[in-house]
Design a protein that fits this description.
The complex is a heterodimer of chains A (256) and B (117). Chain A has helices at residues 2-11, 33-46, 64-70, 87-97, 117-125, 148-165, 181-188, 198-208, 230-250; strands at 20-26, 51-57, 76-79, 102-106, 131-135, 142-144, 176-180, 213-217, 219-221. By secondary structure, chain A is α/β, with parallel strands linked by helices. Chain B has 117 residues and is of the alpha/beta class. In chain B, strands 1, 2, 3, 4, 5 and 6 form a six-stranded mixed sheet that branches. The chains are: A alpha/beta (256), B alpha/beta (117).
């Protein structure tokens, strides 16, 4: 029975290494995090494999962490930060703490339904990819409530990133990406950017390391209450593109 | 997101599908206002086809239930998907509502209340 899968996961500690780790970065998400935890717990428990859920809190000043802990889910871990460091730092901390063979990070607003995990998992599990990324630009994707301004800004930034960093990925910023454990270890140990542009750095690194990256079309909702400030983030994004390019030229990402 | 309304016997059945979040609250309220009776109306919100529900919607549902009870009516949640059921439990909202396994069990005696095993 599906609900029994959830109940077992909820109540019984894992006795073997998790196959899947789901990492959710969050900052002051008291109004959204618990429904997101519920949706993830329902679906991933149904996959029938051992899995863990990691909430990578980014120094929330509200009661996000208390609300998460109050769920009492046995296989949920909170990885806190001493202060607000940025989404990239939170994702890295969660990914480095994860123990699964497949590591997903997913945004706290559940803007990409967790059901889309199945498609990403298939791509990495069957050996087609080291990294599978949710894409709102790939053929077959659906984006709901996405404003025209946001679409235009995203297209412009994508063009800049493709020209300067050589990435071929159409949607670098979707907060729904799956990694093999080996790819995650190699990428996140080299990540230097703590802010929203960290995805771009990961994709640049993946290309440098000749990893196989596939874009998987996903259904995506522009969830209410987004904390992204478009102009501020666009400026930061452009600055980070330059920084990543310079890091690459200076050998910052080299082994050892 | 889509919400349909239909009446079965004396029960108004509202059925949202997909993601039911703050973007949908105005549509839900408008549909309820245009279809409800002013007195003693029973409303069942069928959540079987809903994959995700956020806290603002749960608050709106509680508000609608209070409003209906103020006119001797009621609002129940019917056949929640597993995901919605778990969200209700984790947010501590499950016991705030009458939850029935199917909307046909809404109305009148409220028989067949969901039992959380």
């Amino acid at each position: 029975m599906p609900y029994d899968n959830y109940r077992t996961w909820k109540e019984q500690p894992l006795v073997e290494a998790p196959v899947i780790s789901v990492v959710v970065p969050c900052y002051n998400e008291r109004g959204r995090i618990v429904p997101t935890v519920g949706a993830i717990a329902s679906h991933v428990s149904d996959l029938g494999v051992p899995w863990e859920l990691i909430i990578a809190d980014d120094g929330s000043t509200d009661d996000t962490v208390d609300r998460v802990r109050a769920t009492g889910l046995t296989n949920l871990r909170v990885v806190p930060a001493p202060r607000n460091l940025g989404k990239g730092a939170a994702v890295r901390r969660g990914m480095m703490a994860a123990r699964g063979a497949y590591l997903l990070f997913a945004d706290a607003d559940c803007s990409t339904p967790i059901q889309e995990l199945d498609k990403l998992l298939a791509a990495v599990h069957d050996g087609r990819a080291d990294v599978a990324i949710g894409s709102r630009a790939a053929s077959g994707s659906e984006a709901e409530n996405r404003s025209a301004g946001r679409r235009i800004a995203t297209a412009g930034l994508r063009l800049v990133a493709q020209r300067l960093l050589g990435t071929r990925v159409e949607d670098t910023q979707c907060g729904f990406k799956l990694f093999s454990s080996d790819a995650a270890r190699r990428l996140f140990s080299r990540q230097t950017i703590d802010g929203f542009s960290f995805d771009l750095e990961l994709l640049f690194l993946a290309r440098q390391m000749e990893m196989r990256v596939v874009e998987v079309p996903v259904h995506w909702f522009d969830a209410p209450g987004s904390k992204v400030e478009p102009l501020k983030e666009a400026r930061r994004f452009l600055r980070d593109v330059v920084r990543i390019r310079l890091n690459g030229l200076r050998g910052v990402y080299a082994d050892g | 997101m889509n919400i349909t309304a239909r009446r079965r016997d004396n029960v108004l059945v509202l059925q949202p599908t997909g993601r039911f979040d703050a973007h949908s609250i105005d549509d839900f309220r408008a549909l309820l206002a245009s279809n409800r009776r002013q007195e003693r109306d029973e409303v069942a919100v069928d959540l079987n086809e809903v994959e995700f529900v956020d806290e603002s919607v749960l608050a709106a549902l509680a508000e609608a239930r209070s409003d209906l009870r103020g006119s001797d009516g009621d609002l129940v949640l019917a056949s929640p998907s597993q995901s919605v059921r778990i969200i209700l439990e984790l947010t501590g909202r499950f016991d705030d509502f009458v939850v029935v396994p199917h909307h046909e069990m809404a109305g009148g005696t409220m028989s067949g209340l969901w039992s959380v095993a």
